[in-house]
Amino acid sequence: MESNRGRTFSRRWFLGAGTASLATAGLGAGLTACGSGGSGAGDGKTVTAFVYGDDAVKVQQAAVDRYNKSAAAKKAGGTIKLQKVPGSDYSPKLRTAMGSPSAPDVFFNWGGGSIRTYEEAGKLVDLTDIIADDPVLKSGFLPSVLSAGDLKGRHYGIPMRGMQPVILFYNKSVFAEHKLQPPTTWDQLLDINAKLKKAKITPFALGGSDLWPNLMWLEYLVDRLGGPEVFKRIQDGDSEGWGDPAVLKAAELVKQLVDDGAFGSKFTSVSYVNGGAPAVFAKGKAAMHLMGSWEYSTQLGKFPDFAKSNLGWAAFPTVEGGTGDVRNVVGNPTNYWSINSRTKNKDLAIGFLRECASEAYAKDLVANGDVPTTSNAKKLLASAPNPEYATFQYDLVEKAPAFTLSWDQALGDALGTKMHTEIGKLFAGKSSPSEFVTACKGLK
């Protein structure tokens, strides 16, 4: 997925599952290069922060400039130096640096599986108690986002970019023509599918050849059926969690959709990356599209008239008989700053992290087209490029009891890649729901 870098969605998805997987590849060798008794990160006076060097880095640069002039930085006796690393180089450069005496004090990451190996090697500051004792950090962020990047219930990161929930998008003109409303229940969704197929319209666009778009369906269905605890068990290392009835039922619902033609007959050869799925959706050949929040900017870049006039959005529906809260969301909650346990100026680093909770930081994110994950952000969204859409996203996440991190991000490279393969087989009809469950239980 390294090709997913265009402004329309690369920063959204490429900073999600694809790069998160790359970030964990081969970490073991790099991390053993320098033990916890090494020389440490930085010199105490200058705290280095590694950041992914894309077009959003101007927000982090402005934060560094503000913080370095602050009383907090002067009291801590140092300054932050931002090191911008080109996207294609970020993961290997971070991996190498973290195993050397010149490791960064603070670094950008994706939470979950992307930092697990660092945590296991004792390379991260556990921020749980620090956050609990700091009013700014404790109340500064939406709880579901703060906890989404956790490892085994402990905080190792502070949110530092915009939210990226998965949303049910729909074509308003198609829905109006056929007198339809966005579904709020699974039965309604199936009824809409039947009406659309009768009108010879594919219900859902799906870039099945990329595999990762398929994942979003299972993430939401498992959550709606069994709640976030089902995947949390898997994320925490219990492969038997794949045997939860919610996983089998979700796989059965996916098979039902595929067999019923909900994605058309050629979705396994359609790609999101090359613009195929967005085009099918924008041109009215498919009425809906389950995709990350970056779909809006993708459509704005490729089909601006459609994005401005006919792109609608809604929450994923409830599933009858399920125990999951319909307010829960899945996707890429945000990106995070983590602190190297070997930093020689932890106070300076923590002070910098507090800057991410500031209104100035949130304003800069909004100006860049992002929806901040701070608790004070809603009042700022009137100045967003599309205030209505930005407010919908913020409300969706603010009200969510749980925000489940994309499964491949949460599991890391080795398991995530193997899981993608099994999901691809399920959607392509090459494995049954029960075979899918059995295969996932055996992933190692």
From TrEMBL:
Do you know which InterPro entries this protein is assigned to?
Bact_solute-bd_prot1 (IPR050490), SBP (IPR006059), TAT_signal (IPR006311)
Q: Which UniProt keywords apply?
A: Signal
Lineage: superkingdom: Bacteria
The record's annotation in Gene3D superfamilies points to: Periplasmic binding protein-like II (3.40.190.10)
Q: Which residues form the signal peptide?
A: 1-25
Q: Which SUPFAM superfamilies match?
A: Periplasmic binding protein-like II (SSF53850)
Q: Does the keyword Signal apply?
A: yes
* Protein name as annotated: Extracellular solute-binding protein
Provide the species name.
Streptomyces neyagawaensis
Its taxonomic placement starts with:
Bacteria, Bacillati, Actinomycetota, Actinomycetes, Kitasatosporales
